[in-house]
Specification:
185 residues, globular, Aminopeptidase, 5-stranded mixed beta sheet, alpha+beta, 6 helices
């Protein structure tokens, strides 16, 4: 796999949709994401990455946005999660406010490439892109991808479940903790 920043490979911007993110149906009802998500790669190409295989096929995508946290009325990550981050990012860009932090929006790995550690590489590439852009850190509003297996369990309880190794039981939360992430809630 070769991981490219979209700012270095703008020819791949229109190909980020080639990977099925396998999002649950309810995600399609999110009005904020519906309004902004399709604009992320073209607006923030320096913070977005694409992995291509030896044949040039898109195997994975990683998208992030930049926003300003250190301004009056903010100062802390928002309770509104990803929706609020998206609004802040596009609003800050519109008014010309210099960003100081990045937020991952999505990492999607094609079905045939899952289970081989590519998600770890994509997260590292997003982190590198944020650092290279001079941003203080990369945060990631994370949707635990194993929660559907425990529909009756409250989310607050689910995200505290750990395996024998002490890492989160949820596979996607585990990726982020192994990368140095911490829960903000």
């Amino acid at each position: 796999m070769i991981i490219h920043r979209l700012s270095e490979r703008p020819d791949l911007i229109d190909r980020v949709h080639e990977v099925d993110p396998n999002w649950p149906e309810f995600m399609g009802a999110d009005q904020v994401m519906n309004a902004f998500f399709g604009q992320v790669a073209g607006t923030f190409p320096h913070l977005c990455v694409v992995a291509t295989d030896a044949g040039g096929a898109v195997a994975a995508t990683g998208r992030a946005v930049a926003f300003t946290l250190d301004v009056p009325g903010r100062g802390a990550l928002p309770d509104g999660g990803l929706d609020r981050v998206m609004i802040w990012a596009f609003s800050d860009r519109l008014v010309g406010r210099a960003p100081d932090i990045a937020s991952a929006v999505e990492i999607a790995v094609g079905q045939e490439h899952r289970g081989g550690g590519l998600s770890h590489q994509m997260l590292a590439a997003l982190s590198d892109a944020a650092r290279d852009a001079g941003l203080t850190r990369l945060v990631a509003p994370v949707r635990p991808n194993g929660k559907h297996g425990y529909p009756a369990l409250p989310m607050a309880k689910y995200i505290t479940m750990v395996g024998e190794d002490g890492l989160p039981a949820d596979p996607w939360l585990r990726v982020h903790v192994r990368a140095g992430g911490k829960s903000g809630r």
